[in-house]
Specification:
164 residues; 7 helices; alpha+beta
Length: 164
């Protein structure tokens, strides 16, 4: 059955926490915008209420994005025995992230997909269920048969954070 891989139950963006951490590690000058990104790293907001709602709505699989969507999506795919096609142009990026990446020459998609610590929700749900959702969300791709993960719109294979 066809499913959507949806990200961000509150249409949250990805990569802000990683960008904040990058500012810290690279000892960049901290302006007000950078401070907001750093705060997102130090004080993430878990989406508990949204997760409960999505479970009630029949989400097939769901997890928070703590190790980057490149890693966490693979956990869902492996556990479910399926593949996915993800549209890189659909990955939600904040304007702050894009400005800072432009300023420092960083890749915003790399931070968004591999950075982690965003704690937004990644979930799969059927198209029929998705139409009924009463919370903002962003469809970023679709679940496929097989076991491959395809990043449409790019040539890089984003892996996400690896603990070991």
């Amino acid at each position: 059955k066809s499913q959507y891989a949806c990200d961000g139950a509150r249409a949250g963006t990805l990569g802000d926490s990683a960008c904040g951490l990058r500012h810290i590690l690279d000892k960049c000058q901290i302006d007000e915008e950078a401070q907001e990104l750093i705060l997102k790293h130090y004080k993430p907001v878990p989406r508990v209420k949204e997760g409960c709602y999505l479970a009630e709505m029949g989400a097939n699989a769901m997890m928070d994005i703590s190790d980057g969507i490149g890693s966490d999506l693979r956990h869902i795919l492996k556990s479910s025995g399926v593949g996915a096609e993800i549209d890189l142009n659909a990955i939600p990026l904040s304007e702050q992230l894009q400005r800072k990446c432009s300023q420092f020459g960083w890749d915003p998609l790399d931070l968004a997909i591999s950075g982690g610590e965003d704690y937004e929700l990644l979930f799969t749900i059927t198209p029929q269920q998705e139409e009924k959702l009463q919370i903002p969300h962003k469809v970023i791709g679709k679940i496929t048969s097989g076991n491959s993960l395809i990043w449409k719109g790019g040539e890089k294979d984003y892996l996400g954070f690896r603990h070991f």
